[in-house]
Specification:
The chain is α/β, with parallel strands linked by helices. Helices cover 50% and strands 12% of the residues. The radius of gyration is 21 Å and the shape is globular.
C-alpha cells in the first residue's frame, strides 16, 4: 500500500470500487488480517466492540477516547485496510471532539462517525435513546470537520432519530447534517428498504446501513441494499459474536468433558494461524541471524 495515500483517501477510493461497500467489524489486529484475507476493502472498529471485547464492559458510554485510540493503533499497524471508527458522541464538548479527530487521524484511522444521542448514550437498537437537538449535532459536525488535519479523513454523521422522530424527522436531520459538512451519513436502526430508498433519494452524500444481528434492522443482502441506494453496508460485530459463541462452547466442553478433542473441528489450525501471520517467513529470518551468543561474537 502506498504510504503517501492517506487512510481517508483509501476509504473514499474503496467506496468507488464497490457498491455497496461492505465494511466488516474487527475487534483486534488478528481479526483485521483475517478480514483482509477474506477480501474486504474496509474495516470498522465498533464502540461496543471496544467496550465488550477490550474491557468487558457494556456499550453504555463507559469507555474513553484513549481506550478507542489504543485499539485503533494496534489494528492500523497490523493491517493497511482503511478503518472507520465509532467515536460515539465525540467524547465531549467541541474541544474534545476536535481532539478526537486529531487523535484518531494520528492513530491511522480513515474516518469516524459521531452520533446525535446525548452523552449518556446507549446501543442504537435499544429503547429510550435520547437525542440532542439538530443544532447541537450540527455543532458537533462543524467541530469535527474543521479539526481534521487531513481533509480526506471521513466525518460520518449518525442519526438515531427514526425511533423517536419518525422517518421525516430522521431525514430532516440527515439533510441538516449533510449541509453542515458530513461526508457520509449513518442511518441507524432503519427497518425497511423503503425507508432507505426515501433518504437515499433525497440526499447527495453516501448513506450507510448498519446490518447488525439481533437488532431492529433486517439482515438485508447487498443486492437489496444496492436496490435501495445504500452506499455502505456495515457488519459491526458479526465475527465477534460468532467467536464468542464458539469460545464459550469450547470452554464448556473442556470443563465438562476434560478434553478439547470434540471441538477440534471448530478451531483454526496451527498452520492456518501461521499462514495469516507469515510466521514461517519470520522464523526463517530469525534462523538466518543465528543464536544470540553467535551474534555477540
Amino acid at each position: 500500500m502506498n504510504p503517501a495515500i492517506s487512510p481517508g483517501k483509501r476509504l473514499r477510493a474503496a467506496l468507488k470500487q464497490e457498491h455497496p461497500l461492505q465494511i466488516v467489524g474487527v475487534i483486534n489486529p488478528y481479526c483485521a488480517l483475517l478480514a483482509a484475507h477474506s477480501g474486504f476493502r474496509a474495516l470498522y472498529l465498533s464502540g461496543a466492540g471496544v467496550a465488550n471485547a477490550s474491557h468487558g464492559l457494556p456499550d453504555l458510554g463507559m469507555t474513553t477516547l484513549n481506550d478507542v485510540v489504543e485499539d485503533v493503533r494496534r489494528i492500523t499497524r497490523a493491517c493497511d485496510l482503511p478503518l472507520l471508527v465509532d467515536a460515539d458522541t465525540g467524547f465531549g464538548h467541541r474541544l474534545m471532539i476536535e481532539r478526537t479527530v486529531q487523535e484518531l487521524t494520528a492513530a491511522g484511522a480513515a474516518g469516524m462517525h459521531i452520533e446525535d444521542q446525548q452523552n449518556d448514550k446507549r446501543c442504537g437498537h435499544r429503547p429510550n435513546k435520547r437525542l440532542v437537538s439538530t443544532e447541537e449535532m450540527v455543532a458537533r459536525i462543524s467541530a469535527a470537520t474543521t479539526a481534521r488535519p487531513d481533509p480526506e479523513f471521513v466525518i460520518m454523521a449518525r442519526t438515531d432519530a427514526l425511533a423517536s422522530e419518525g422517518l421525516d424527522g430522521a431525514l430532516q436531520r440527515m439533510q441538516a447534517y449533510s449541509a453542515a459538512g458530513a461526508d457520509m451519513l449513518f442511518a441507524e436502526a432503519f427497518t425497511t428498504l423503503e425507508q432507505y430508498r426515501t433518504v437515499t433519494a433525497a440526499l447527495t452524500v453516501p448513506v450507510l446501513a448498519n446490518i447488525t444481528e439481533f437488532g431492529k434492522t433486517p439482515l438485508f443482502s447487498v443486492n437489496e441494499l444496492r436496490s435501495a441506494g445504500v452506499a455502505l453496508a456495515l457488519y459491526p460485530l458479526s465475527a465477534f459474536r460468532a467467536m464468542s459463541s464458539v469460545a464459550e462452547q469450547v470452554y464448556t466442553t473442556i470443563r465438562q468433558q476434560g478434553s478439547q478433542k470434540s471441538t477440534l473441528d471448530l478451531m483454526q489450525s496451527r498452520d492456518e494461524l501461521y499462514t495469516h501471520l507469515n510466521y514461517l517467513e519470520s522464523e526463517r529470518k530469525l534462523d538466518q541471524e543465528g543464536p544470540d551468543d553467535e551474534r555477540e561474537e
